[in-house]
Amino acid sequence: MSDFPTVRLRRLRRTAALRRLVQETHLVPSQLVWPLFVTHGEAVRRPVTAMPGVHQLSPDELVKDAVRAAALGLGGVILFGIPAAKDATGSEAYDEQGIVQQAIRAVKRAVPQLLVIGDVCLCEYTDHGHCGVLRDGDVDNDASVSLLGKVAVTQARAGVDLVAPSDMMDGRVAGIRKALDAGGFAHLPIMSYAAKFASAFYGPFREAAGSTPQFGDRQTYQMQPANGDEAMREIRLDLAEGADIVMVKPALPCLDLIRRAKEEFGSPLAAYQVSGEYAMIKAAAERGMLDEPRAMWESLTAIRRAGADIILTYFAPAVAEQL
User: Fold this and answer.
1) What's residue 57's pLDDT?
2) d(CA 153, CA 63)
3) Of the residues 3, 48, 224, 321, which has the maximum number of CB atoms within 10 A of its CB?
4) Domains of the chain, start order
5) Which of 150, 249, 262, 282 is catalytic?
6) What does the pLDDT read at residue 216?
7) pLDDT in tens, 17-36
8) What CA–CA distance (Å, rounded) separates 37 from 33?
């Protein structure tokens, strides 16, 4: 090149101090949300085999992790529930005394300043494992939206700070917004899983949440990984329906869509580094194939660099402790 050796980009890479000085992308704890799994009982801290370091927690144990999250300055926690019993409509999801509602109240009593997000879906609670109610063997979209509104309202009554519908029913953001407003919760924001793909990377989560479908799959409501333009349509629709934050899931296979969404819409944008992404790094590190801390940082930095303002990740406490 004609300006060599006057321009030498390596000059700013020479020392750690120089590299820190010119670093373009930064992670801070307040950008990270820690997913937690809550189950009935007391003193329960049950390891999830497929996700080393992740546990199913009873509310008393969950509060301990919530206290830790607040002390680390994390952006918040998102709660997934494991019910005492499952049925065709996932009724514990919208029970005032459901496990997530109990957990929300317990966390807000212990650490009221911590942001608590409620996952709004039915898959963990239904006996068939799908994200809505069934009619003639398929998920009934509009009947499911009605129940999701009930889930959001009961979580709001428990004191949740933010609701996050992850079901991928059409029109569910509008339905939840209407239900919240009618219930006196017009102030409560919605973080929509707006572009959620039918991904192979969700497997370990289904062990953690007990949410594996008992038949078929979720491709009639979750998106095809090949469809980027459709993802933008989904995000646009959710914003029009009243979503305050939109999410792309999974994160690492969708970095291009995170970038597109940020550039096209500019709204607060979340990305979920899902269970399979976490488990791959853990498994490879256990086998000596890669350096876990470096892989953790590199993957999360890539998600942030692509344009995500918020990252849901099981690495959240580890990152915050290193920071």
Assistant:
1) 97
2) 22
3) 48
4) 26-322 (3.20.20.70)
5) 249
6) 64
7) 999 999 999 999 999 999 99
8) 13
Token pair belonging to 246: 């939109």
Question: 95: which 2 tokens?
Answer: 């029970």
Instruction: Identify the segments of the chain with pLDDT beneath 50.
Output: none
Transcribe 210-251 into DSSP letters.
T---SSS-STTTSBPTT-HHHHHHHHHHHHHHT-SEEEEESS
Distances 227 to 20, 94, 164 between C-alpha atoms, Å: 37, 32, 23
CB of 226 within 8 A of CB of 199? no
Cα distance between residue 191 and residue 1, in whole Å = 48
Query: Which amino acid does the sequence have at 73?
Result: G
Q: Which listed residue (86, 150, 196, 262) is catalytic?
A: 196
Query: How is residue 1 annotated by DSSP?
Result: -
Backbone angles phi, psi at 217, to 5 degrees: -145, -170
Instruction: Please give the structure tokens belonging to residue 58.
Output: 């009873």
- For 299-314, the pLDDT digits (tens) are 999 999 999 999 999 9
DSSP assignment of 28-71? -GGGEEEEEEEESSSS-EEE-TTSTT-EEE-HHHHHHHHHHHHH
How far is residue 276's CA from residue 299's CA, in Å, rounded to a whole number?
A: 13
179 Cβ neighbours under 8 A, 6+ residues apart: 149, 150, 152, 153
Please name the residues in contact with 52: beta carbons below 8 A apart, sequence gap of 6 or more.
279, 282, 286
How many other C-beta atoms lie within 10 A of the C-beta of residue 47?
12
Residue 178 appears among annotated catalytic residues: no
AA identity, residue 176:
I
> What contacts 317, CB < 8 A, 6 or more positions away?
34, 65, 68, 69, 72, 74
The pLDDT value recorded for residue 129 is: 80
pTM beyond cutoff 0.90: yes
The runs of H, that is alpha helices, within the chain are 16-21, 59-72, 99-110, 141-158, 172-182, 203-209, 228-241, 255-265, 275-286, 292-306, 316-322
State which amino acid sits at residue 129.
Answer: G
